[in-house]
UniProtKB/TrEMBL annotation:
One of its GO terms (cellular component) is plasma membrane. Keywords: Cell membrane, Membrane, Transmembrane, Transmembrane helix, Transport. This is Sugar ABC transporter permease. It is found in: Cell membrane. Pfam families: BPD_transp_1. It comes from the Archaea. PANTHER family: ABC TRANSPORTER PERMEASE PROTEIN (PTHR30193). GO terms for biological process: transmembrane transport. The lineage of its organism: Archaea, Methanobacteriati, Methanobacteriota, Stenosarchaea group, Halobacteria. Its main location: membrane. Residues 131-347 form the ABC transmembrane type-1 domain. The chain crosses the membrane at residues 49-70, 135-156, 168-188, 220-241, 273-299, 324-348. Belongs to the binding-protein-dependent transport system permease family.
């Protein structure tokens, strides 16, 4: 059994165990859930082993989060620390700029929607574009990666020849770091000798050969394509495990009922992959929020309105311009976004009794 087979098998067994335990009644005591924290002798004996690590995590993780939030309530700007006033002025400043309207611009010859769009691109606050690009990256990257991963999983599930080879090829990009992926795609996107533009010119599609990482309107698209390439293998593994956990009887019953391949997957198979979709979507959205390394390698700390996201803006604000309070506020907003991604999933898992 190859390494990919072992991964798929573990995910499939986890999904089967999850489904079998989700329907089991929870142990209760007078209507209350039991099985919580046990403070018996075993807990006391284990205390010396986990307490030091727990204290370090509390200090360097949760303590750092609390310190960051405290700094965001001040007006600390420059090398001289300032811990006053304690208010939400930095957050007000950020969201005022996010929702600010750009002023007049010399683009009246364009249709109104395009004039407003390019006017924002030229004169709008960078906060607007950073927030907007983060949300677009979060949604479009996740949806596109799930779709590509599902299609790859369906292809692999057809018992094709060299299945293990293809699965390894599809999953290999995920093992690369953001830095390696960025360097690779920086070469792919090069407008002069990059393989993408060269291939387009070879087949006569010269009008599609653009400056992918230089033109503002293509930067975010280039980022989404590269990240989808890197993480679609993860979606494939999750979906493949889900597909192979579905009994073959359901496929055969759908065919007997006269359902075509597309209808069978849309009506019978894909609805049973909701749990796999949810768990994969959460992981992919977390990856999207952690894409700082990728953007920094390609664009540096100033990617411009076309590709700026909150994590890059936070770094630039805090460490390039020494506006530590404003940078801390942006980091807190990014942290809240991450919680908004993770907490609904944890709540659903808790309701199902998996936590």
């Amino acid at each position: 059994m190859s390494a990919i087979d072992r991964i798929v098998d573990r995910v499939r067994r986890y999904r089967s165990d999850e489904e079998s335990t989700s329907d089991a009644p929870l142990a209760t005591d007078g209507g209350h859930r039991t099985g919580g924290l046990d403070l018996g002798p075993e807990f006391v004996q284990a205390l010396p082993f986990w307490l030091p690590a727990g204290l370090l995590v509390a200090l360097f993780v949760y303590g750092a989060i609390g310190w960051n939030f405290l700094v965001s309530l001040t007006d600390w700007s420059g090398l001289q620390a300032s811990y006053w006033p304690l208010d939400f002025g930095m957050y007000t400043r950020f969201f005022e700029r996010v929702f600010a309207q750009s002023g007049d611009h010399a683009l009246s010859w364009l249709p109104a929607p395009l004039a407003d769009l390019f006017g924002r691109l030229l004169t709008g606050p960078i906060e607007y574009w950073s927030f907007r690009n983060t949300i677009v990256l979060l949604i479009v990257f996740t949806v596109l990666t799930l779709i590509v991963g599902l299609l790859l999983a369906i292809l692999i599930d057809q018992q094709i020849r060299f299945e293990n080879t293809f699965r390894t090829i599809y999953l290999l990009p995920m093992s690369l770091s953001f830095v390696v992926t960025a360097v690779f795609w920086q070469w792919m996107y090069n407008p002069r000798y990059g393989i993408i533009n060269s291939a387009l010119e070879t087949v006569g599609l010269d009008f599609f050969a653009v400056d992918w990482i230089g033109a503002a309107q293509f930067k975010l698209l280039a980022v989404i394509i590269a990240l989808t390439w890197q993480f679609s293998g993860y979606g494939m593994v999750v979906y493949l495990a889900g597909l192979r956990a579905i009994p073959n009887d359901q496929f055969e019953a759908a065919r007997v009922d006269g359902a075509g391949t597309i209808k069978m997957y849309l009506r019978v198979i894909i609805p049973q992959l909701r749990a796999a979709t949810l768990s994969a979507a959460v992981v992919l959205m977390v990856f999207a929020l952690k894409a700082f390394d990728f953007l920094y390698v390609i664009f540096g700390s100033r990617p411009g309105p076309g590709a700026d996201i909150l994590s890059v803006m936070m770094y630039r604000t805090a460490f390039d311009t020494s506006q530590f309070a404003y940078g801390a506020a942006i980091a807190t907003i990014l942290f809240v976004l991450a919680l908004g991604v993770i907490m609904p999933y944890l709540y659903i898992q808790y309701q199902r009794g998996d936590l």
